[in-house]
Design goal:
Elements (H helix, E strand, L loop, with lengths): L1 H49 L11 H5 L2 H17 L3 H17 L1 H4 L23 E8 L7 H10 L2 E9 L1 H9 L2 H4 L2 E4 L10 E6 L5 E3 L12 E6 L2 E8 L9 H12 L7 E7 L7 H7 L3 E3 H4 L13 E2 L4 E2 L7 E6 L3 E8 L8 E7 L3
Helix pairs in contact: 1-3, 1-4, 3-4, 6-7, 9-10
Keywords: Endonuclease, Exonuclease, Hydrolase, Membrane, Nuclease, Transmembrane, Transmembrane helix
Organism: Bifidobacterium subtile
Protein name: Endonuclease/exonuclease/phosphatase
Length: about 375
């Protein structure tokens, strides 16, 4: 009996030790999960800002923070894994709800309900003629005209681009593009007239086909003027525009809202539009979604082909040893619902702080 009692005593001792170890592990993990809770609360705060309505989403640093909403899903996913490993049920539930909400917001980037985007021809098969229904289009913010003109022309040739829009262009860039031979592939152009509120330069639009009409000032806007060219494609006339509203920096926030609202007025215009450029806003900004309204769609959000981040580009840290990835999707191809834009692609262009965004347009999709 004495041996049996000793065995029971030993088991009790082992259980006490195991309980002590568990308590010690819990105490050591407590600071970690406190940090994870704080991170989750910060994510929730960003998500609340994302729901700020149009007109109020341009206050202070709200638009800058909201631009990074897509990355909150990554933060929530990592925190959820840690919560599951640590058996923190409440934290896991909150992270799951955050993650599901973020996935719902960005479902169009994951899955497309428009099967027409899968039926577009390959880039290599595009003929480059205006008589058909297809056209490869491209937009690029040239960073005060510093983008590599030869690379722009080379990309236009390789991608069979028929419509090119540029932002922040200047006389020097236009001359370099001409010298690089852009006129031989895109002979028609519309250059917006300089104004007192240009942001970084003027907007420019090039086309392969002769436009049926052009204007250097499509809408009244407190930003660089919007040049437009209407081109006949198959049985339809498409009006292309190069846009660049102000960025939402604190000193520009009133101009940022008013610029996007000015573009939104095109919803009542009877013409068929494809608007391309640096919108200085993302799908998560209420002002951008207001611009789209019920009429326009953002090609990136409709394609189900993930995000096409365009800014920043060509940025490095620590003397060039660390390359900064593109983090936000501020360059867009916005179009009427009756046409299709797919096969999206980004291209890094030397000299610019934005990537070029390309897509294939089907006007009879």
């Amino acid at each position: 009996m004495g041996d049996v009692q000793q065995l029971y005593d030993q088991v009790d001792t082992d259980q006490d030790l195991y309980g002590d170890w568990q308590r010690e592990d819990s105490l050591r993990a407590r600071p970690l999960f406190t940090v994870l809770w704080l991170i989750t609360l910060a994510v929730i705060g960003v998500m609340v800002l994302r729901m700020t309505p149009n007109g109020l989403d341009g206050k202070k640093y709200i638009p800058v923070v909201v631009a990074f909403v897509p990355w909150m899903a990554c933060v929530s996913a990592v925190t959820l894994v840690c919560a599951l490993i640590g058996r923190r049920r409440a934290l896991a539930v909150v992270c799951t709800l955050c993650l599901l909400t973020q996935l719902c917001w960005h479902w169009g980037y994951i899955w497309t309900s428009d099967e027409r985007t899968h039926e577009l021809p390959s880039v290599s098969s595009l003929t480059g003629g205006s008589a058909d229904r297809y056209a490869r289009v491209m937009t690029l913010n040239t960073k005060n005209g510093l983008a590599d003109a030869q690379q722009i022309v080379r990309t236009v040739r390789e991608e069979h681009v028929e419509v090119l829009t540029l932002q922040e262009a200047n006389t020097g860039l236009l001359q370099r593009l001409a010298a690089a031979g852009l006129g031989s592939v895109l002979p028609y152009s519309v250059v917006a007239a300089p104004t007192g509120h240009d942001n970084g330069g003027v907007n420019v639009l090039y086309t392969a086909a002769k436009p049926v009409s052009t204007t250097g000032d499509l809408i009244a806007i407190e930003a660089s003027s919007v040049p437009s060219a209407c081109v006949r494609m198959a049985s339809r006339t498409v009006c292309f525009g190069s846009v660049h509203p102000f960025s939402p920096r604190p000193r520009n926030q009133g101009l940022w809202n008013s610029g996007l609202d000015s573009i939104a007025k095109l919803q009542s215009n009877a013409r068929l539009f494809v608007l391309m450029g640096d919108f200085n806003s993302t799908w998560d900004h209420a002002s951008f979604r207001f611009l789209l309204g019920d009429r326009f769609v953002d090609a990136g959000e409709q394609n189900g082909s993930w995000f096409h981040m365009t800014y920043p580009s060509n940025v490095t840290l620590f003397g060039g040893r660390v390359k900064v990835p593109s983090l936000v999707e501020v360059d867009h191809i916005v179009h009427d619902r009756s046409v299709v834009v797919g096969d999206l692609e980004t291209v890094t262009v030397a000299g610019s702080d934005h990537k070029a965004l390309l897509g294939t347009l089907d006007v009879e999709g």
